[in-house]
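Late entry, evening session. Most of the bench is empty. Finally got around to the prediction I had been postponing all week. Sequence below, unchanged from the version circulated by S.P.
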Amino acid sequence: MSRLIVISNRVQPPGGKGDESVGGLAMALAAALREYSGLWFGWSGKITPRFTGQLSMQKIDGVTAATIDLEEADYDEYYNGYANKTLWPLFHYRSDLTAYDRAYGEGYERVNRRFAETLRPLIEPDDLIWVHDYHLIPLGRELRRLGVRNRMGFFLHVPWPAHQLVTTLPGHRQLVQAMFDYDLVGFQTAEYRQAFEEYVLAEADGEQLSPGRLKAFGRTVQVDAYPIGIDAGDFARMVTSPKARRMRDIMIACTVFRRLIVGVDRLDYSKGLEERFLGFERLLADNPDLRREVLMLQIAPVSREGVEAYQEIRGRLDALSGRINGEFADVDWQPFRYVNKNYRRDELAGIYSAARVGLVTPLRDGMNLVAKEFVASQNPEDPGVLILSRFAGAARQMEDALLVNPNSPEEVADALKRALSMEKPERIRRWRALFDTVEREDVTAWRDAFVTALAGVEPRVTALAS
């Protein structure tokens, strides 16, 4: 059996069995690496005064992790710069926030080259190489330049935008060309795959050889959609754990049996938090009879504090949450709780299980696993209702949620009112359909589908030079 090498910006293997501080994706990748006796390579998360390329190797719960430290300039230009100030906003349709700086692009290329040079000695001839996300698009090209002939796949966790938007990026052609150094490129949805195909055909003089097979830049690549999932069974079982039960009890006590609306998102402008707050505000303004009957909890851990756009959105959300409570709170009731704190997965399972409504309304999202975690956490006999943005990748699989346009406070408010008044038979019917999909199209199915497809591609006869 071929060994699997996973490369991602950060390496976060579980610390041991039952470790609930690590996300579901990390758990799935760790399971794949154990099955394929593989290696997980990437950044340690640490900054060093000078880049040395020194590898740190450790084995954690059967997973071999190989990490390197980055220097300050790498962090500023590659991570905070090109990845998070250029590609992230562009891929999430926020061209108004996209920063174009030549130094950022140079740092992005430099770090991908350093990743390739450090990883190259660890690669064996039969290894399958699986590269993850927008941070590392050029990594395949750099590995090919070093003579790597292995089957190599790339998976994009975020949206791929319309080709007209991609063309606003300086060097867009070179970025797309680098994706043709992979044998297989995976996207979250068919919509994102089609947007990539449209770019190749319209901007790169490409050719569609067959469904899912593209030719451009003198090379061919296989493309397909691989919607990522969660370990639904594990998450459902987690609800019965001591920490989950305690968190559920706390939430019930805090809400005094009011109906709980919950949102859980990283603090990011793509998550539609401002629009969500306005939708909840509209619900309270238009429905005085509901004001003392509901409580909304928004958990939004702070991220990327070094990026100015994130500092600005935090200030706006602080002001907006204060305005809502100032306008509608009473001496013995406060309608809105806004928390900038991380919680463990089992604690979140307990919070989800106590909620009548899960409010998941990103403006644009590659998939959104919170929606799936909320469904997996519900009591089958008395489930809550999922309200989901139609612009999340998950909406393609979860049509039995209440789908909304997150840009419309009225539409969000109407969906909240409908969810809060929905009768149990309809809630159960919708939940059963959603859980069936979440359980069937889980993270293991995603992982196995991609790795199987990668293992089946024709290996490259010679190394590619660019």
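Two things to note before I forget:
The longest helix spans residues 308-328.
The chain has two domains: 4-229+444-456, 232-440.
Will write this up properly tomorrow.
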